[in-house]
Amino acid sequence: MKILVVGGTGTVGSEVVRQLKTRNETVSVLTRSAEHAKTLPPGVGGVVGDLMDPSTLSVFKGFDAIFLLNPVSTTEVFEGLLGVNAARDGGAKRIVYLSVHHLDQAPHLPHFGGKIGVEAAVMKSGMQWTIVRPNNFYQNDFWFKEAMLNYGVYPQPIGSAGVSRVDVRDIGEVAVLALTTDAHNGKIYNLVGPEAVTGESTAAEWSRALGKTVKYAGDDLDAWEAQQRAYLPPSMLYDFKHMYAFFQKNGFKATAADVALLTKVLGHAPRSFAAYAKEMAAAWKA
Questions:
Q1: Where is 132: in which H helix or E strand?
Q2: Confidence of residue 286 (pLDDT cuts 50, 70, 90)
Q3: pTM over 0.70
């Protein structure tokens, strides 16, 4: 198969690419520039195109399957819909779309509500399709490495209601199965961890893994916003602040059925946060 990964250089997309290569699949990544294409891993093709420029999307032709991931931005919906159209018009037989867990419960969140329309387009595209809906990623904690190591603080304000965070490697594994086999056509999978975590439990897990005290920074979203204003654009700051408010009020938890189905699809239990923290702590100390 020839597979094109859209969003193939980010946290999830690069893992999908890595796992496709371990299966010896022919994989390419959509990139906006020929220079960027030169930085892709060995054996991974670069296809130059821009989902904001429809005139470039003939590059989708010749691929059997498309993995579609659109980063959070003010143009996410447009890019998602053009990705679906480009895949269909290019003759792809299969598309796997990365959506988000519980998007129907929080459609007021821009990067949740926008995916509802893209999901509908995927399902009406005429291609074989699979939709994967991941929870918050364990790997997001990489961005908090310095805060934890240097200041003993875990700053992600996920609250105390519970969030069923997931390992990106499990997301990649399900995506690759859906891209390369027929067994997942027409399926929607919630991609979640085996247990819900809280801000306090996450900080405690990092404390155990790192062998030092890490404290949860708390639920004050105004303080979080002030701290993040230097790093995030205003639209993303607004989006994520309201997302964390939703987490704190409602939780972002999986059901037992979600975990059981994911275990069946993977052929093993979803990776635990404790195992991830221990693994990363060892790597950081090395």
A1: strand 128-134
A2: confident
A3: yes
Pick the closest to residue 80 from 95, 65, 58 (CA basis). 95
Note the Cα 61 to chain centre separation in Å. Answer: 25
Rounded-to-integer distance, Cα 48 and Cα 44, Å = 13
| The token pair that represents 144 in the structure block | 């908090």
Please tell me whether residue 113 adopts helix, strand or coil conformation. helix
Instruction: Give CA–CA dist 16/9, Å, rounded.
Output: 10
Beta carbons within 10 angstroms of residue 35's beta carbon: 10
pLDDT digits (tens, 9 = 90+) for 74-131: 999 999 999 999 999 999 999 999 999 999 999 999 999 999 999 999 999 999 999 9
Inter-CA distances, 112 with 71, 103, 216, 254, Å: 12, 5, 26, 16
In tens, the pLDDT along 169-193 reads 999 999 999 999 999 999 999 999 9
Give per-residue pLDDT as tens, 10-58. Answer: 999 999 999 999 999 999 999 999 998 999 999 999 999 999 999 999 9
Q: Are 157 and 220 in contact (CB under 8 A)?
A: yes
CB 86 within 8 A of CB 51: yes
CB neighbour list of residue 269: distance below 8 Å, 6 or more residues apart = 194, 263
Both tokens of 236, joined, read 């993303």
Q: What is the dihedral of CA 121, 8, 10, 38, to 10 degrees?
A: -150
Helix 168-180 / helix 11-22 crossing angle, nearest 10 deg: 50
| CB count in 10 Å sphere of residue 259 | 18
The backbone torsions φ and ψ at residue 261, rounded to the nearest 5 degrees and listed phi first, read -65, -45
Q: How far is CA 254 from CA 82, 104, 133, 192, 257, in A?
A: 31, 14, 11, 6, 8
Specify the residue for token string 């020839």: 2
For tokens 């918050």, the residue is: 136
